[in-house]
């Protein structure tokens, strides 16, 4: 999805060109088809090629990915996910970033969206 969001649209070969350690052509094509079936991408034909483009906004993709991440690795617990992130990045977290996180949590408690 990142390649499609960055480029706007791309063929399977173009997606592969922009992946750091790409799987084979067939695997990328199969994944794009699956994402199309799920409504994440669309395609149009350009000669013999299928050109894929995002069917959803980046923010929708992010939210969907976060929900899936929470369900898959943290049993739906935002608390456990945040604890894991903080444990992993505590040495890199500045005082300003920590203050912003505290403010976002407080805003959430008061019914705000935090974004």
Give a quick precis of the structure:
By secondary structure, this protein is mainly α.
Write the layout of secondary structure elements.
Blueprint: H1 2-7, H2 12-17, H3 25-37, E1 41-46, E2 49-54, H4 58-74, H5 78-89, H6 95-109
Antiparallel strand pairs: 1-2
Tell me about this structure.
The protein has helices spanning 2-7, 12-17, 25-37, 58-74, 78-89, 95-109; strands at 41-46, 49-54. The chain is mainly α and 115 residues long. The protein has two domains: 2-54, Orthogonal Bundle (Arc Repressor Mutant, subunit A), CATH 1.10.10; 58-109, no CATH class. A two-stranded antiparallel ribbon has the order 1-2. Strand 1 and strand 2 (49-54) form a beta hairpin.
Strand order of the largest sheet: 1-2
Principal-axes shape call = elongated
Integer count of domains: 2
- % residues in beta strands: 5-15%
The parts where pLDDT drops under 50 for at least 5 residues are none
Number of strands: 2
Mean pLDDT: 91
The fourth-level CATH homologous superfamily of the largest domain is Winged helix-like DNA-binding domain superfamily/Winged helix DNA-binding domain
Profile the largest sheet: 2 strands, antiparallel
Q: What is the correct CATH architecture of the largest domain?
A: Orthogonal Bundle
Could you please say which CATH topology of the largest domain applies here? Answer: Arc Repressor Mutant, subunit A
The assigned structural class equals mainly alpha
**CATH C-level category of the largest domain:** Mainly Alpha
Helix content: 55-70%
Instruction: Quote the distance from N terminus to C terminus.
Output: 22 Å
How many helical elements? 6
Radius of gyration: 18 Å
SSE pattern, N- to C-terminal: HHHEEHHH
């Amino acid at each position: 999805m990142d390649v499609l969001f960055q480029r706007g649209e791309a063929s399977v070969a173009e997606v592969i060109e922009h992946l750091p350690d790409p799987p084979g052509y067939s695997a990328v094509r199969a994944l794009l088809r699956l994402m199309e079936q799920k409504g994440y991408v669309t395609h149009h034909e350009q000669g013999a090629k299928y050109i894929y483009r995002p069917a959803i906004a980046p923010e929708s993709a992010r939210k969907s990915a976060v929900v899936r991440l929470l369900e898959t690795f943290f049993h739906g617990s935002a608390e456990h996910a945040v604890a894991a992130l903080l444990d992993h990045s505590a040495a890199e977290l500045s005082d300003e970033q920590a203050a912003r996180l505290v403010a976002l949590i407080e805003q959430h408690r008061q019914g705000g969206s935090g974004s």
